[in-house]
Specification:
Layout: H1 3-30, H2 37-55, H3 59-68, H4 75-91, H5 96-119, H6 122-147, H7 151-159, H8 165-191, H9 205-219, E1 226-230, E2 236-239, E3 242-247, H10 254-272, H11 288-303, H12 307-321, H13 330-337, H14 354-369, H15 378-390, H16 416-435, H17 439-444, H18 449-458, H19 468-476, H20 482-493
Parallel strand pairs: 1-3
Antiparallel strand pairs: 2-3
InterPro entries: Peptidase_M32_Taq (IPR001333)
Protein name: Metal-dependent carboxypeptidase
Family: Belongs to the peptidase M32 family.
C-alpha cells in the first residue's frame, strides 16, 4: 500500500469516528434525557481521546514524507496532503489528557447552560464556564506554541484556517465605525416607508414546522440525508450524509423559526454538497467557518429577504396559517423581513445590526482568552458593550451573555466568522446573480436550483481544496471586499425601491 493510501485509509477511519461523535453530540443537544449527561460526557470524552490518538499516530509523519515524494499524485491528493499535515500539526500540539478534560468540561457545561439560560442565572453557569475557559486557554497556548501564534489566533485557526486577529481587528474597527451612522440612516429611511400591516398569531408549532419543511425542500435540502428537530439553540450537525438541523419555535412569531430553518438549511446544503469522492478526507471537509457561515447567511439574509422570495413564500405562509389580509401580502412581508431594529438577540437580528452583536462577542472572547478580564465581569462588560455598539442594554442575562451556546460548548474563536461570513455571503450572492441571470427570477418561482447549482460548482464541491482567499477569489474574481457588503446594505436599506 502506498503512503498516500495509508494516510487516506487512516483519516477515513478518523472521519468515521467523527461521524459517531457527531450523532452522539446531536442527541445530547436534542433528545438526551438530562440524567444521562454524566454518562454521555464520559462516552464523548473517550471517543474524542481515541480520535485524537488516531490523529497524532506516529506513523503519520513518515507517511507524509513518503507521500510528498510520490510523483503520481493529482491535484486533489496534493491538496489532501496539505490538509492532513495541517490537522496533524494542530493535533500533535494537544496532550490527550487535555482533550479528555476539555470534552468532559464542555459536555457538563452545555447541560448547565441550558438551565442557567432558562433561569437567567449567570452565577449558576460561572463555575463550569470557568473550567471550560481555563482549558481553552491551555489549548490555545499549546497550539500557539506549535504554530507560532498567539493563543487566540491558535483557537481562531481551528475555525478559520489562516485567519488572524490583527486582520479582523482592522476590519471590525472599520465596521464598528461605519455601522452606527448607517443604522441611523437606515432607521430614518425606514421611517418614511409605510409600516407593514400587523399579522397576528398564535401560530401553531405544527403549522410552523410544516412551512419550514416546504421551504427546506424548495431550497434543495435532501431529506433522505437529514432531518429537522427542535433544540434550545438552533444548529446544524450530525454526520457525513446525515446532516441534521434544528430550530426553536415561538407561537407568537413564526418568522424566528422560519428564518432559523433557512439559516441552518444553508449550512446543511453546504454539507450535503461536499465532494462525494473525498467526503471522508480532510480535503473534502468544509473550507472553514467564514465560508460555512456565508452559506447560511446567503440563504437567510441575501436570498430569502428579497422581494422575489417573499412573492414565492407569501402564499405558502397564508396557507400554513389560514391567514389573509394586507399584512400577508408579499410587499408587507418584505418590509417586515427587512425591518431594522435594535435588539438584544443575535440570531433574531437584522443584517444591519447583526455585525454589532458579533463584534461585541469577538472583543469579549479575545479579552477572556488573554486573561485581561475576569469571567465574573462578563455580564457587566456585555451590557456595557452592547449599549455602546447598539444603544440597548439587556434587561437580564438570558437576553444578554447567556443567549449563545458557543462558549459553553468550547467554541472560542468562532464568533468572528459570522460577520466574515455575512460579508462573504454578499460577495458570493452578487457573483452568482451576475453569472446566473435566472438566479433571482428562479427564487421568485421557488426554484433555487440556478443559485444552488452555482454554489455547488464554485463552493460546495470544492471542499477544502483551496484556501479561503483563493476559493473566494476564484468564485468572485477578488478576495473579500467589505465594499460589496456595504453596497448591498445601502441598496436594500437606503433605497426604498430595492
Amino acid at each position: 500500500m502506498s503512503a498516500y493510501a495509508s494516510l487516506a485509509g487512516h483519516f477515513g477511519r478518523i472521519a468515521a469516528m467523527s461521524n459517531a461523535i457527531g450523532i452522539l453530540q446531536w442527541d445530547s443537544d436534542v433528545m438526551m434525557p438530562r440524567g444521562a449527561a454524566g454518562t454521555r460526557a464520559e462516552s464523548l470524552a473517550l471517543l474524542r481521546v481515541l480520535s485524537h490518538e488516531m490523529a497524532v499516530d506516529a506513523r503519520i509523519g513518515d507517511w507524509l514524507a513518503d507521500a510528498d515524494a510520490d510523483t503520481g499524485l493529482g491535484d486533489w491528493e496534493r491538496a489532501n496532503l496539505a490538509e492532513i499535515r495541517r490537522v496533524w500539526t494542530v493535533q500533535t500540539a494537544l496532550p490527550a489528557d487535555l482533550v479528555e478534560a476539555s470534552s468532559k468540561a464542555i459536555s457538563l457545561c452545555e447541560m448547565t447552560w441550558r438551565q442557567a439560560r432558562a433561569d437567567a442565572d449567570f452565577a449558576a453557569l460561572l463555575p463550569s464556564l470557568t473550567e471550560v475557559l481555563r482549558l481553552q486557554r491551555e489549548a490555545g497556548i499549546a497550539k500557539g506554541e506549535k504554530l507560532g501564534l498567539s493563543p487566540y489566533d491558535a483557537l481562531l485557526n481551528d475555525y478559520e484556517p489562516g485567519g488572524r486577529a490583527a486582520a479582523i481587528d482592522e476590519l471590525f474597527d472599520d465596521l464598528a465605525a461605519f455601522l452606527p451612522g448607517f443604522t441611523e440612516q437606515a432607521l430614518a429611511a425606514q421611517a418614511h416607508r409605510p409600516e407593514p400591516a400587523a399579522i397576528e398569531g398564535p401560530f401553531p408549532v405544527e403549522a410552523q414546522r410544516a412551512l419550514g419543511l416546504k421551504v427546506m425542500a424548495a431550497l434543495g435540502y435532501d431529506f433522505e440525508r437529514g432531518r429537522l428537530d427542535v433544540s434550545t439553540h438552533p444548529f446544524c450537525g450530525g454526520a457525513d450524509n446525515d446532516v441534521r438541523l434544528t430550530t426553536r419555535y415561538d407561537a407568537a412569531d413564526f418568522s424566528k423559526a422560519l428564518m432559523g430553518v433557512i439559516h441552518e438549511t444553508g449550512h446543511a446544503l453546504y454539507e450535503q454538497g461536499r465532494p462525494a469522492d473525498h467526503m471522508n478526507q480532510p480535503v473534502g471537509q468544509a473550507r472553514g467557518m467564514s465560508i460555512h457561515e456565508s452559506q447560511s447567511l446567503l440563504m437567510e439574509m441575501q436570498a430569502c429577504r428579497t422581494r422575489e422570495f417573499l412573492a414565492f413564500a407569501a402564499p405558502l405562509m397564508r396557507e400554513a396559517f389560514g391567514a389573509s389580509g394586507p399584512g400577508w401580502e408579499a410587499e408587507a412581508l418584505w418590509r417586515r423581513y427587512t425591518r431594522v431594529e435594535r435588539g438584544f438577540i443575535r440570531v433574531d437580528a437584522d443584517e444591519v445590526t447583526y455585525p454589532a452583536h458579533v463584534i461585541l462577542r469577538y472583543r469579549l472572547e479575545k479579552a477572556l482568552i488573554a486573561d485581561e478580564m475576569p469571567l465574573a465581569e462578563l455580564p457587566a462588560a456585555w451590557d456595557e458593550g452592547l449599549q455602546a455598539l447598539l444603544g440597548v442594554t439587556p434587561p437580564n442575562d438570558r437576553l444578554g451573555c447567556l443567549q449563545d451556546i458557543h462558549w459553553p460548548s468550547g467554541g472560542w474563536g468562532y464568533f468572528p466568522t459570522y460577520t466574515l461570513g455575512a460579508m462573504t455571503a454578499a460577495q458570493l450572492f452578487d457573483a452568482a446573480c451576475r453569472a446566473e441571470p435566472d438566479a433571482l427570477p428562479g427564487i421568485g418561482r421557488g426554484d433555487f436550483m440556478p443559485l444552488l447549482g452555482w454554489l455547488r460548482t464554485h463552493i460546495h464541491a470544492l471542499g477544502s481544496r483551496y484556501s479561503t482567499d483563493e476559493l473566494l477569489t476564484r468564485a468572485t474574481g477578488r478576495p473579500l471586499d467589505a465594499a460589496v457588503f456595504k453596497a448591498h446594505l445601502a441598496r436594500r436599506y437606503l433605497d426604498a425601491a430595492d
